[in-house]
């Protein structure tokens, strides 16, 4: 918390918080939540351990902030695609997949999935936070896009339009595989563009309403 009587430099505070989160992310991906020590986070961020507590109330608070910061941008990008009137719904879905693949496979979010899973088993409150505050906004944005596509007649009203796991399951599986393969001397090479294209084609095959039969003249 900022000291009483002193004006708050919001830009400095934002930079310090970002530096501490970045350092915490490095420690989390290498040592997990149980192995994260705030003194190590502080050292990597170039601040004292007591300074960490000026910005985050606890280790759990810092962990939550790291997760939230990684998901906010992705949820915002999907929300923006929902209102992209220059794109039809299949195009919005394609760009949403691009956003999700980038978030899960080209950013630290995917590397944190094993950490999140391990942490959830030991700390139910942190598991609940992940589901409601991190996954929740992403799920709502994605399901909102699908519901709007159904309402517009672009997608069929099928179970897949109401199930986030059915939509993003392949991306999560690839992210976990990539995280595991990072520890292998010669990890398998994934053709992500081809996998993404196949994923999109499978989704569209399930989502596009069947064509109505021609009516006899």
Automatic annotation (TrEMBL):
SUPFAM superfamilies: Homeodomain-like, Tetracyclin repressor-like, C-terminal domain. It comes from the Bacteria. Keywords: DNA-binding, Transcription, Transcription regulation. Pfam families: TetR_N (PF00440). Residues 14-74 form the HTH tetR-type domain. One of its GO terms (molecular function) is DNA-binding transcription factor activity. Residues 37-56 bind DNA. This is TetR family transcriptional regulator.
